[in-house]
Write a structure and sequence with these properties.
globular; single chain; 155 residues; 75% helix; mainly alpha
């Protein structure tokens, strides 16, 4: 039974996420791969609870960690940039979305990646951002995402 209704559970979930987010930076500092995985999970949990600002802030920190640990051209950086853009969509910081997506695109382009799930996700996020800016760009990115996902096995 819920002691104080559904808001009690959400508050408790947020408190637990906040504690985890504050501890992950120190507790796993000697293991950047584990640290970035936990940060990704916490960011996703924030996002699923509608706490996009917290999700975006954690992804921003994750991007910095990944760049430091693996280099700015690592595909994990591109994935985190795309997650960062997704979280920003529901915040007041939408002006950061296109630069983040452009950086992710540069990483994928440099790797000659034009057909991965990550490339499809990139096109989806571009389409989402252009939804209120340019119908033509939104449509072309949505079409490109469909093309990528249709080429994937088990699509």
């Amino acid at each position: 039974p819920m002691v104080n209704g559904p808001w009690f559970c959400i508050s408790t979930a947020r408190e637990l996420l906040d504690i985890g987010a504050s501890r992950v930076k120190n507790a796993l500092k000697d293991s950047p791969d584990s640290q970035q995985e936990v940060m990704s999970t916490l960011s996703d949990m924030y996002y699923q609870l509608g706490m996009e600002e917290e999700s975006a802030n954690l992804e921003r920190d994750r991007i910095a960690l990944l760049k430091q640990a693996y280099g700015a051209q690592d595909p994990r950086v591109a994935e985190s940039l795309i997650s960062f853009a997704a979280a920003l969509h529901a915040t007041g910081r939408r002006e950061l979305i296109l630069p983040a997506l452009a950086e992710a695109k540069e990483i994928l382009d440099a790797r000659h990646d034009d057909s991965s799930v990550l490339r499809g996700q990139l096109f989806i996020r571009f389409a989402q951002r252009y939804q209120n800016i340019s119908y033509d760009k939104m449509l072309s990115n949505a079409d490109a995402a469909v093309t990528v996902f249709r080429r994937l096995p088990n699509a």
